[in-house]
Amino acid sequence: MKNLLGDIKNSYIFYGFYQKYRARKRLRNLKRNKKKVPPYLLKDNFEQELNYKLWSTKGARFEASTRNLIQKKLSAQSVGFLSAYLIVINIVHIYNLSFWELEITANDVAFASTAFSVLILLYSQLESAEDHGVKAEKYHSCALEIGELYNDLRLSKSHETEEEKRVRIREISNEYDLVLRKYENHKPIDREKLMLNKYHYHGLNWFERFMGHMKYYFFVKLKYHVLIWGPLIVFLTFNIMKIYHII
User: Which chain regions cross the lipid bilayer (predicted)?
Assistant: First the structure.
């Protein structure tokens, strides 16, 4: 009985310390996140909030355009490398060549050739459906339109009366909503890339920037690099394993 009461007492004390730890952690997170709130949102001012929306959306749409151009370029490179691998495989079959320590049979060549052909066909269809080139142009046009609204809002601060400014702010807000309806929304990674480029403004430390760049690479570039360099890495790995008699 005493042991049971002791266990309950110890558990209660531990739970109390755990609750205090969680409360302190929440307080630290609130303080840290408060520092990351953009200056335009610190005050309850619609003009400043609209100013920040225009600036951030414009930047995110430019980042979305850049991302799609990068993906378009890497997509073309991926198809080119896969096609080159397919040609090399067929040359091996025609001229009966051998690669380093690997002995490649006719069945191996036939299987690899078929696999690469299917991969190129499937990948080309998927990338064509994404239509990165058209998306890049649309995001760029959207960013330019929002940029014009942003400039109009900035000019209205010094060249209009308070009443004229209120009317103009409402007009700009309505035009901003119309622009957003015309175009596809950008992805969250584009917004995060904008924050990485303006890390001083958003209060990001070095670890958050590092993780952000890693996330951007995994989201945007990794699959293309796997298709470009993956077959070569697999080929070298099998040769090294053959040399050291692992396989």
Answer: 79-97, 109-126, 224-244
